Structure formats: structure tokens, C-alpha cells
């Protein structure tokens, strides 16, 4: 028995990359996995891989960006496995452009997949779990969202993606604050690994080492954190954003109030230049932009 025995986990975008690694790792820890991907064949290939290894999984290709699609995913999971205990919101896309070159479609498509995609399934499941809790049943449920270093630090040519990923961090905080009373935790991860997206953006950086040394960018390196977050062992942790890559795990602090200058009265506009300069000098240096 693994640490996710008898738990059902839905993973979006699980036909490859990080999602596939999560699915395999969760199944290895006895979870029953719903492998969602818009590419039906890719989802089925991961399911076949899991079942060959003795695990339990089912493929799903419904649209995560509509409530109807989300309801079908949840209904299939419950019909197949009886209940859902965790959701890993992993699916994503890229339409990288410098900000002045972004089209309305570039913006909307990335925000739709990341932010609306995170909303629909989580909202559907949160309602389901809330109703169970109000009916007196014990709920021990998990929302695991996916942000990015781009969402934490900004990223050149990724204003649409970075904005969506930053929004996911804020969504995670609100979910944690609102849903804890129902037995639901919400955390986010900002993973760095070799995926189709990173191979397209920075192929030389994420390539597998030819000498057989530790493969820092292997998606499987991030999977143990996701497994732990989906398990009963993590019930005391909520509202956190984890960064994970290679063998490294950290918790992002997020925005914090820095030094304060209080005049005790309303400032005059002409007074503020030296004040702002002094606050910047006393504060923390800005973080490096992600990927530069």
C-alpha cells in the first residue's frame, strides 16, 4: 500500500511531461488516477502504462475550460472509482510574444486555459466536497494548482502566461482561506522540468545529460511533492506555493509589506521622490526576471 491508497486523483494535461510523471508516481503510491488530456491517445497511452504496472487509471479527454466538461470529468471519476479526493490542475499552454506584439487572441487563449481551466474543475469539486461536508461526511480533499517561476518573478515575452500563473497563486490563497472549513486544502507548485513547453522555449537548458549524471530537469523529480500533497499526510498544509526542480524544494514567500515611511499626514506630491528612493534603498532588491 502506498501513501495514496484508496484515493482518486484527477490530473489535467496528464498525457505527457509533468502530468504523466505525476500520474505514474501517484499510481505507484496506490492512487486511482483519472488521466485527463485533450489528446485522447496520449491520455490512453499513460493509462495503458499505469495498468501494465498494476495500477488503476482511466483516460478522459473532456474540456477543462468549461463547467460542462468539468462536470463530465468528475462524473466519470466517481462512476469509475466511487469518489474524488484530489485534483492536480496541471494543463497549460504558451503563446509567447513580447508584450507590444501580443494579440487579443494570444492573451485570451493563455488566460482561458490556465485561469479558467483552474477554475472549472476546482469549482465543480469544491461544490461536491462542500455538500458532503455539510451532510456530515468527513472530507479530506486536495486542490493542487500549478503556477510557475514566471508567475512569481515575471518573464520576458510571457506577459500573458506570467499574469495567469500569478493569478493562480492568488486563487490558491483564496481557496485555502474559504475551503478549509470543509476539509479541503489548496496549495500550488511552481515546477521547473523538461516538458514540451520548456523544450520549445529553452531546449539547450533542459536537455537530458549525456553522461548519465543526475537528470535535474526530469519531470519525475517534481512528482514526489505532488504525491505528498495529494495524500492524507499533507492535511495540515494549505495556502502555500512550493517551488520544485531537480532535488530542490522551497516555499515562495509571495508579496510582503516592506519598509514603511509614515508622515502622520497626507504627503505632498513633490515630497515623494526622496521618500520613494529611501524606501527602495531600505528594501529588498528586485528578483531577477525568470529565465534571464
Automatic annotation (TrEMBL):
Domain Ketoreductase, residue spans: 7-192
PROSITE patterns associated with the record: ADH_SHORT (PS00061)
Keywords: Oxidoreductase
Residue ranges that the Swiss-Prot or TrEMBL entry lists as coiled coil: none
Keyword Oxidoreductase attached: yes
Source superkingdom: Bacteria
Family: Belongs to the short-chain dehydrogenases/reductases (SDR) family.
Name of the protein described by the UniProt record: Short-chain dehydrogenase
Gene source species: Pandoraea captiosa
Lineage: Bacteria, Pseudomonadati, Pseudomonadota, Betaproteobacteria, Burkholderiales
Amino acid at each position: 500500500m502506498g501513501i495514496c491508497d484508496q484515493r482518486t486523483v484527477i490530473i489535467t494535461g496528464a498525457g505527457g511531461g509533468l502530468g504523466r510523471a505525476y500520474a505514474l508516481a501517484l499510481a505507484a503510491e496506490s492512487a486511482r488516477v483519472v488521466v485527463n488530456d485533450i489528446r485522447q491517445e496520449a491520455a490512453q497511452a499513460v493509462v495503458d502504462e499505469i495498468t501494465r504496472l498494476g495500477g488503476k487509471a482511466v483516460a478522459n479527454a473532456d474540456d477543462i475550460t468549461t463547467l460542462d466538461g468539468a462536470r463530465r470529468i468528475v462524473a466519470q471519476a466517481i462512476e469509475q472509482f466511487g469518489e474524488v479526493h484530489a485534483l492536480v490542475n496541471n494543463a497549460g499552454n504558451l503563446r509567447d510574444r513580447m508584450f507590444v506584439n501580443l494579440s487579443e487572441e494570444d492573451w485570451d487563449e493563455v488566460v482561458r486555459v490556465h485561469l479558467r481551466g483552474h477554475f472549472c474543475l476546482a469549482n465543480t469539486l469544491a461544490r461536491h466536497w462542500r455538500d458532503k461536508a455539510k451532510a456530515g461526511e468527513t472530507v479530506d480533499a486536495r486542490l493542487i494548482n500549478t503556477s510557475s517561476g514566471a508567475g512569481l518573478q515575471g518573464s520576458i515575452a510571457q506577459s500573458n502566461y506570467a499574469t495567469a500563473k500569478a493569478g493562480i497563486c492568488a486563487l490558491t490563497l483564496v481557496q485555502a482561506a474559504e475551503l478549509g472549513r470543509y476539509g479541503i486544502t489548496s496549495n500550488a507548485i511552481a515546477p521547473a522540468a523538461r516538458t514540451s513547453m520548456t523544450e520549445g522555449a529553452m531546449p539547450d537548458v533542459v536537455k537530458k545529460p549525456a553522461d548519465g549524471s543526475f537528470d535535474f530537469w526530469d519531470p519525475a523529480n517534481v512528482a514526489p511533492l505532488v504525491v505528498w500533497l495529494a495524500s492524507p499526510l499533507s492535511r495540515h498544509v494549505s495556502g502555500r506555493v512550493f517551488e520544485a526542480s531537480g532535488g530542490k524544494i522551497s516555499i515562495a514567500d509571495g508579496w510582503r509589506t516592506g519598509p514603511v515611511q509614515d508622515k502622520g499626514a497626507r504627503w505632498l506630491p513633490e515630497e515623494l521622490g526622496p521618500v520613494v528612493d529611501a524606501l527602495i534603498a531600505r528594501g529588498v532588491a528586485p528578483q531577477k526576471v525568470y529565465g534571464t
